[in-house]
Give the backbone structure.
Amino acid sequence: MKTFFHVNDIGDLGAALEEARQVKATPFAWKHLGQDKTIMLVFFNSSLRTRLSSQKAALNLGMNPIVLNIGQDSWKLETEMGVVMDGDKSEHLREAIPVMTSYCDLIGIRSFAGLKDREFDYNESVLRQFIEYGGKPVISLESATVHPCQAFADLITIEEYKEKKRPKVVMTWAPHPNSLPQAVPNSFAEWMNAADVDFVITHPRGYELDPAFVGNARVEYDQMKALEGADFVYAKNWSCPGVTDPAQYGKVLSKDRSWTVDERHMAVTDNAFFMHCLPVRRNMIVSDAVIDSPRSIVIPEAANRTVSAQVVMKRMLESL
Ligand code: AN0
Ligand code: CP
């Protein structure tokens, strides 16, 4: 595997889930694979889970992780081509990428959407430069449009907790004070469409996700109706994807707290499990009562981030 951005990169999902099960059962069984290998984990944005689970996954495989926080530990980097660099950016990605990849075997990148220029974000302009100028396998640790390590961990979690062969999974938008990327809902939709689940997306009008990610998923604008009979409720905020009105891209269109997932919402489900990728804002996205309930699986979901990252790194090491 040379890149990990989309569900197709992992191939057959049944095989990937079986591999995840094995990795979780015996995490140190492939320690030889990473011997004398280095992974560079480059963060343009904050992270708790991704930075820790990626390092743990690398260590489980016997690999050396190096973490770099751009702009804090390093120079600030320019990401756009053709600009006169007379601002606060001291170095361009064009030089920084081949330098970084000369020190490692695999590279993981966290680079959120800027949420200003839809075309720049949806072209994955930063990630593309890492592929073009880096020459090493690249993992998206949440880039402009996707968060595949999260979606894979979410699928592993659903597989572990499901009580029906084909569960109903509902992804619901929920309010947040800030403008957040669409990477998490995009990837979750992409992975759920590929999995054997009954998948429904619900959000206020104007929050339509990019059709490339929505695929054949059912979209239901009535949140309560969407949640009826759900087995898993996956909450997430995202900003306006700018599909119906490009001028609204990245904007917060609603802070309607009637969309905050609370006991009233969970009551219409089939005793659903509650999921969220974290970090989560309590009583904005989800009420205390729901996230603290026995049906909340946000912590095992986060724990599975090590498993998803380890399967991806293992596959990459095997194909070096
Ligand atoms: C980020 C997002 O919504 O993309 C990271 C989630 C994993 N969340 C925040 O910035 C709060
Ligand atoms: N879910 C997730 O990616 O969390 P972090 O932003 O803390 O890495």
User: Anything to note?
Assistant: The mean pLDDT is 98. The radius of gyration is 19 Å. The pocket of N-acetyl-L-norvaline (ligand 1) is lined by residues 142, 180-181, 183-184, 277, 279 (CB under 6 Å). The longest helix spans residues 298-318.
